[in-house]
Amino acid sequence: MEEAPTYQAVLDEVGPRLRRLRAKRGLTLAALAETTGISKSTLSRLESGQRRPSLELLLPLAGAYNVPLDDLVGAPEVGDPRVRLTPRPLAHGGTFVPLSRGPGPLQAYKMVIADRGTEPNLRSHEGYEWLYVLEGRLRLVLGEHDIVLGPGEVAEFDTRVPHWFSGAEGRPVEVLSLFGRQGERMHVRARPRS
């Protein structure tokens, strides 16, 4: 991993960066002094590294050059805040994307489940699951029940009960799943309608 530059190294680069920017814009120290209200000698010392850059000096320079302050000081780029999620194949057709980043009692997944046909293969295991249908229709066989859920509908069940689910009507279904391996349940708090 690359080591972050020290503050002193960043400050040492400000002067040369200011000089290059002024030269690129074709400005003299006198013209820049007139625009910013900073004396020629202060600008010269700033560019040569004899004067430490301060916010009081850098703000008028950023305005004169019409650049962000970050460009003057060479601020490191901020990383992309987006989380890159990696889809993984489901053993029985479709894909899932883990939404939880670390270990914990509840794990969240987004799943796209293919229509697996009409013959359910019921399974059971430790845990508790909460399914929310985002798009499409979900066929859920849970014990003796065979139901179809549409967008916005939710199913919540103990996974020790034999179950099976699939896209319905020949199409895949998009589902949000919260799963607790040791039987942890989802806790929902809602206000009653008035």
Description:
- This protein has five helices and nine strands, in the order H-H-H-H-H-E-E-E-E-E-E-E-E-E.
- It has 194 residues and is an alpha+beta fold.
- The protein has a six-stranded antiparallel sheet with strand order 1-2-3-9-4-7, with no helix packed on it. Strands 6-5-8 form a three-stranded antiparallel sheet, with no helix packed on it.
- Strand 2 (94-98) and strand 3 (106-113) form a beta hairpin.
- The longest helix has 19 residues, at 7-25.
- What's the count of strands? 9
List SSEs in N-to-C order.
HHHHHEEEEEEEEE
Largest sheet: 6 strands, antiparallel
Q: Radius of gyration in whole Å, from Cα?
A: 30 Å
What fraction strand?
25-35%
Query: Widest sheet: strand order?
Result: 1-2-3-9-4-7
Number of helices: 5
Structural class label:
alpha+beta
**What quaternary form is this?**
single chain
Name the helicity range.
25-40%
| Arithmetic mean of pLDDT | 86
Shape: rod-shaped
Given as residue ranges, the uncertain stretches (5+ residues, pLDDT < 50) are: none
Keywords: DNA-binding
InterPro entries: Cro/C1-type_HTH, Cupin_2, Lambda_DNA-bd_dom_sf, RmlC-like_jellyroll, RmlC_Cupin_sf, TransReg_Diox_bact_type
Pfam families: Cupin_2, HTH_3
Protein name: XRE family transcriptional regulator
